[in-house]
Amino acid sequence: MGPSAPLRPAKASKSPALKGDIRIPGDKSISHRSFMFGGLAAGETRITGLLEGEDVINTGKAMQAMGAAIRKEGQVWIINGVGNGCLLAPVAELDFGNAGTGCRLTMGLVGPYDFETTFTGDASLSRRPMARVLDPLRLMGVQVKAEDGNRLPVTLRGPRAPAPISYLVPMASAQVKSAVLLAGLNIPGITTVIEPVMTRDHTEKMLKGFGAALDVETDADGVRTIRLEGRGQLVGQTIDVPGDPSSTAFPLVAALIVPGSDVLIRNVLMNPTRTGLILTLQEMGADIEILDPRQAGGEDVADLRVRASELTGVTVPAERAPSMIDEYPVLSIAASFAKGETVMLGLEELRVKESDRLAAVARGLEINGVDCTEGEDWLSVRGRPDGKGLGALSKDAVVATCLDHRIAMSFLVMGLASENPVHVDDCSIIATSFPEFMTIMSGMGGEITVS
Ligand code: S3P
């Protein structure tokens, strides 16, 4: 979606008990990486369960522009990759739309190549900081042309002889870790990434699966040292993408806060770097049963049975932030319906997501009658267990979604349980990560209307 796409307002209203047996589309992080690594590896990669959201499709288009052949047969995406080190110079700029992951990881992937690549995105992505990826690329010898403040559009050109680096990731970011590792794929020698706080490990796991020489050492303090040997061969794989836990969060919280609800959510990725929300909600008293835990394609997967629950506020420690970083907006909605205060700490990274999520959530809660306090890197919410008085306080109370899919979905979930309806200024942005959101929520009985 471009900056000039028309906004589509939507309204969510108090709904009867939600019921359903649902399957959530594929994980966004794994889907991006499936297109990237499949497009890079020699031979054929076959992907089932891929998330067909706009963000991932843009990554697929970028890989096509750099030489990968991508097609869909029935339910299977089939990619014929170029072979490691053999990406082609794209003839036009690569437009990543709203997607930080697609853009930043591809900057790493192609940065060291000795040709020019230009990266663009929508108004949200063009506001987001890129220095976190451009700084390590500069250390490798990559030339960078960027807008003031290291924003998009960015043009990269790799050196004739890129040098491997050892890089301590300065913030908890899987995107930065991944960008450095992906750059290392086309640099001779060992690229080292030191990660003081563990973030989602899909890049490490999947690169190993594609045949990269990569090892991870974790010391007694949990600091991880990841070493990757560049210029090795990558070979196409078969991937079955499990359901996205970050998308699962929306029907899951909806089922917890709408009285009488009972919902089964199948095939959810349960990688421990992604399950912080489930742990937090369980601490709040949520009835979430983890059924049939199993392994699928090297990942933990389970089904979740969720029943409406009486929640109580908790303090969420800062150390947990990386394992639930995308889930704070919807946790804030759960907290609005909990007894007592929920305090969320260590939220500095929320300021640089698709929107300033800390501010967007706080403003949205305020106009919908929730008592909350926004700190520099924390948020506290004082809930109303019965939902009375919550929802739009006036006809002008419309949540500004700021081109942020998770703000739109979170506040639509709120409206399903609050006394008054909740209005959001746009729902079209939801298609970036969860195009089936409206169908799944209304299938469970959620009352959401789009104007
Ligand atoms: C992602 C990493 C996280 C997350 C994003 C997906 C990834 O971003 O918020 O939605 O797939 O690597 P950061 O690395 O900026 O924390």
Keywords:
four-stranded mixed sheet, 2 domains, UDP-n-acetylglucosamine1-carboxyvinyl-transferase, Chain, 26% strand, binds shikimate-3-phosphate, 28% helix, 451 residues
* Structure ligands: shikimate-3-phosphate
Number of strands: 24
Task: Specify the CATH class of the largest domain.
Answer: Alpha Beta
Give the fraction of residues assigned to helices. 25-40%
Overall average residue pLDDT: 97
* Domain unit count: 2
CATH topology of the largest domain: UDP-n-acetylglucosamine1-carboxyvinyl-transferase, Chain
Q: Tell me the CATH architecture of the largest domain.
A: Alpha-beta prism
Let me know the largest β-sheet.
4 strands, mixed
Structure description:
This protein is of the alpha/beta class and 451 residues long. It has 2 domains: 10-26 and 242-450, Enolpyruvate transferase domain (UDP-n-acetylglucosamine1-carboxyvinyl-transferase, Chain); 28-240, Alpha-beta prism (UDP-n-acetylglucosamine1-carboxyvinyl-transferase, Chain), CATH 3.65.10. Helix content is 28%, strand content 26%. It has 13 helices and 24 strands. It has helices spanning 28-40, 54-65, 100-110, 123-127, 131-139, 174-184, 202-209, 245-257, 276-283, 328-336, 357-367, 405-415, 437-443, and strands at residues 10-13, 19-23, 43-48, 69-73, 76-81, 94-95, 116-120, 143-147, 151-157, 166-168, 190-195, 213-218, 224-229, 238-240, 262-269, 287-296, 299-307, 315-316, 341-344, 371-374, 379-382, 398-399, 422-424, 447-450. A hairpin with a 2-residue loop joins β16 and β17 (299-307). The longest helix is centred in the first third of the chain and has 13 residues, at 28-40. The protein is globular and about 65 Å long. Residues 29, 101, 173-175, 178, 200, 325-326, 349 line the site of shikimate-3-phosphate.
